[in-house]
Every structure is written in structure tokens, then in C-alpha cells.
Amino acid sequence: AHNLVKQFPVQAGPFEPKRILTAVAGIDLELYPGETLGLAGESGCGKSTVARLLTGLIPASSGSISFDGKDLASLDAAGTARFRKEVQMIFQDPFSSLNPRMRVAEIIGEPLAIHGIGTPAERRDRVASLATRVGLAPDHLQRFPHEFSGGQRQRIGIARALAVAPRLIIADEPVSALDLSIQAQIINLLQDLKAELGLGFLFITHDLSVLRHLSDRVAIMYLGRIVETGSREAVLDRLLHPYTEVLLSAIPRIDGGKERRVIARGELPSPLAPPSGCPFHTRCPYAKPVCASDPPPLEEKEPGHWAACHFSKEIYRSQR
Ligand code: SF4
Ligand code: MG
């Protein structure tokens, strides 16, 4: 994705003026085959909008998205159909993303039917093997979604996403609604599938501790912008942006490392009125006057490790 922007017109009430909400403010993202990119930030930072843009569920206001080197906007009908097969999505809420009136076998098999793959008998076999692969018992297939726990419903969602053998899965907070022990099971399943099938993942979460387990690279979003990105080790162990530090401080340390809690001041500003200069300056514990006027560019601070902060070198060199 290159220089991706998404704006929505919003109107607070019938007599209020229309305003423009910039949910995604010009981001670049690259996903390599078979890798997991973790995209993290607070709710309201634009992560889910990025997911919906990348799957083509909503059109971008400007910027471009390409897949296999081809611009999505220039694809013909066959190309678009292929893209819709190669990129599948797993949603946060397995309760609302599964049709309550369909049996599990129909839900998992639906993408095969939509894409016209296989005979009915072949589809039934494929559905049975997918169900087994994600840990659902064969006798579960004739049941309805409400008969399952949250974790099992997410397994159904994963089986459905896998049905058409995609190369990329976009998972928007797939474990956030689940209990911790169930989260670990689902994350293990996703990791196994990644290794086994060579799947690429865009894994969207507000919880950086999840990304420690399953991402190759990490990108941190704040108010519709990417403020830091690099390898998992670079971003999580040698962070260079105060916002990343705030997100990491929110996670209790279990490695016995030195505890240093950095807390953001105040609330997340409205994306309707983003701050001038550095978008994080109203909350940043290190902000200086220049931060309120000059937007910091996303710069490569060390090889492959990018951050958008005027003072990252000064702040983090002195602390290491
Ligand atoms: Fe904080 Fe300034 Fe860096 Fe923004 S540019 S993150 S306000 S120190
Ligand atoms: Mg969201």
C-alpha cells in the first residue's frame, strides 16, 4: 500500500456542519509472502480501516494498493476475483461475523461455493478436513454458530478463511474478545498454520504482547499514521518512538526486566481535529515546543527501523 488515505464525512447531528474524519492519513505498508506483520495501536487509530481498505471492502480516498505488483484499481474482473480469493479476512467478533442461520458446514464451505471451487462432494471433503485442521469435531459441522464458545467460533472463522487456500489473511483483533487461555490456543493455531501453509498474515491488535509471539515485523499506528515500524526485535526491544514506549509500558513485564512505566497524558485526540506538528505531542512525555509545530517524518533511524519522532535518538540513546 502506498500513501493510503481514507477520509469519511461525518455529521454530529442534522443541523451540524459536515466534517471530514481522516481515519488513515497517508500510510505505506508492505507485506511480504509468508510473513506476519503486526499492526498495533489504540482503538480509534485507524487499524480496522486499514484492514478494510486492504481487503477492498471499502475504497481508498487516495493512494494505491497493489498485490503481486499489480494495482488493485487496474484489475479486471478475473483479477479482482483472484485477489478476493487470495486475501481472506478473520474478524474480531466471531459472534457477529458468522451467519446465525447457517450450519457450520455451510459457513466454512461458503467461500468455495462463491468462488465455484470443486464439486459438492469435493467441497464436503474439504470442509471436513478444514474443520479437523482447526480443531473442530466432525459432528460439530451440522450445528449452528450459537452452539459454540467464542474460541470455537473463531476456529470456524479461521476454517472459513482457509477454505479457498489464500496467501494472505488479514486478522482484525482475532483474539481480543477471547479469554487469555483461549487466546493462546488460537495464536498457536495461527502460528502452526503459518508455518504449515506459508501463509502471510496482517495481524491487527491493540495488544503488543500478542505480537511478541507471532509477528516478524511490527508497525505502530497513531491517529491514522504509522509512527514506528521495523522487525519485531527492533520495535519491541529497541523502540525509538515514545508512543511505542507508552504501549509497551501498559504490559506487565514477566521477564524480570527493569520496570519503567511511561504513561501518555490525557486522552486520544479526536481524529476530526488532529494536533498540529507531531500528532502525539499533546500526550508525549518528552514533547518540546518544536513538536507542536513541525511534523516529524517517518525516517529510517537504523537499518530497517523507522520512526517518526524528532528526538528519538536523544531520548533513547541516553536511556540505553
Ligand atoms: Fe514526542 Fe516530539 Fe517525538 Fe512527537 S516528535 S513523539 S512529541 S518527542
Ligand atoms: Mg478496530
Summarize this, please?
By secondary structure, this protein is α/β, with parallel strands linked by helices. The chain is built from eleven helices and 13 strands.
Radius of gyration: 21 Å
User: How many beta strands in the DSSP annotation?
Assistant: 13
Global mean pLDDT:
91
Which ions, cofactors or small ligands are bound in this entry? iron/sulfur cluster, magnesium ion
Strand content: 15-25%
What pattern of helices and strands is seen along the backbone? EEEHEEEHEHHHEHEHEEHHHEEH
Helices, by number, come to 11
Strand order of the largest sheet: 7-8-9-3-10-11-13-12
Q: Look at the helices and sheets and give the structural class.
A: alpha/beta
InterPro entries: AAA+_ATPase, ABC_transp_ATP-bind, ABC_transporter-like_ATP-bd, ABC_transporter-like_CS, Oligopep_ABC_C, P-loop_NTPase
Organism: Geomonas silvestris
Keywords: ATP-binding, Nucleotide-binding, Transport
GO molecular function, one term: ATP binding
Walkthrough of the structure:
This protein is 34% helix and 20% strand. The chain contains 11 helices and 13 strands. It has helices at 47-54, 77-86, 104-114, 120-133, 150-162, 180-197, 208-214, 232-237, 242-249, 289-293, 312-319; strands at residues 2-10, 19-27, 36-40, 62-64, 66-67, 70-71, 87-90, 168-172, 200-205, 217-222, 225-231, 299-302, 305-307. The strands form 3 sheets. An 8-stranded mixed beta sheet has the order 7-8-9-3-10-11-13-12, with helices on both faces. A hairpin with an 8-residue loop joins strand 1 and strand 2. Helix 3 packs across helix 4 (120-133) and helix 4 (120-133) packs across helix 5. The longest helix is centred in the middle third of the chain and has 18 residues, at 180-197. The model has no long low-confidence stretch (mean pLDDT 91). Bound molecules: iron/sulfur cluster and magnesium ion. Iron/sulfur cluster binds next to loops. Residues 1-248 form the ABC transporter domain. Belongs to the ABC transporter superfamily.
